[in-house]
């Protein structure tokens, strides 16, 4: 039988997992629409994932949606990444969202290399505040439908 503290912890865990699943689905819908609306080339793909990693600050649960693509005749794979997640720290929850591109060759407005197109990071939050901020960040990511065009991808 769960005591009151255990029941509260189970409720918080369920809240976290349910919110992450819902936000993952929302970001997946958006990135799938981007992928189908733009011509990333024949050698391209979209990989949505929910990643759990251990960091020195604490465990991180991250939504990670990667577009992989290669220029014609190029064996190297470039990536466009939309990510959002939270890290559990001793000072509270840290929430971060980012859009970045790791380009093997110049693409659109950007030269070869890693480029951060968007990043927002907020820390020292309670779980409920962290989930609210994370929802706002995913909403912001889902408005960035111009990113493929900025990278030089044509619409279909």
What are the defining features of this structure?
156 residues, alpha+beta, 5-stranded antiparallel sheet, 3 helices, 5 strands, 39% strand
Separation, N- and C-terminal Cα atoms: 57 Å
Rg estimate, integer Å: 18 Å
Our count of helices gives 3
In sequence order, what are the helices and strands, one letter per element? HEEEEEHH
- Outline the biggest β-sheet: 5 strands, antiparallel
| Secondary structure tally: strands | 5
Helix content: 25-40%
Extract low-pLDDT stretches: none
**Beta-strand share of residues:** 35-45%
Query: Averaged pLDDT, please?
Result: 94
Sequence of strands across the biggest β-sheet: 1-2-3-4-5
Inertia-based shape: elongated
Global structural class: alpha+beta
List the helices and strands and how they pair.
Layout: H1 4-37, E1 44-55, E2 58-69, E3 78-89, E4 92-103, E5 113-125, H2 127-141, H3 147-150
Antiparallel strand pairs: 1-2, 2-3, 3-4, 4-5
Helix pairs in contact: 1-2
Task: Characterise this structure.
With 156 residues, the chain is α+β, with helices and mostly antiparallel strands. The chain is 34% helix and 39% strand. It is built from 3 helices and 5 strands, in the order H-E-E-E-E-E-H-H. The chain has helices spanning 4-37, 127-141, 147-150, and strands at residues 44-55, 58-69, 78-89, 92-103, 113-125. It is elongated. The mean pLDDT is 94.
What's this, in brief?
Helix content is 34%, strand content 39%. It contains 3 helices and 5 strands; from the N terminus they run H-E-E-E-E-E-H-H. A hairpin with a 2-residue loop joins strand 3 (78-89) and strand 4.
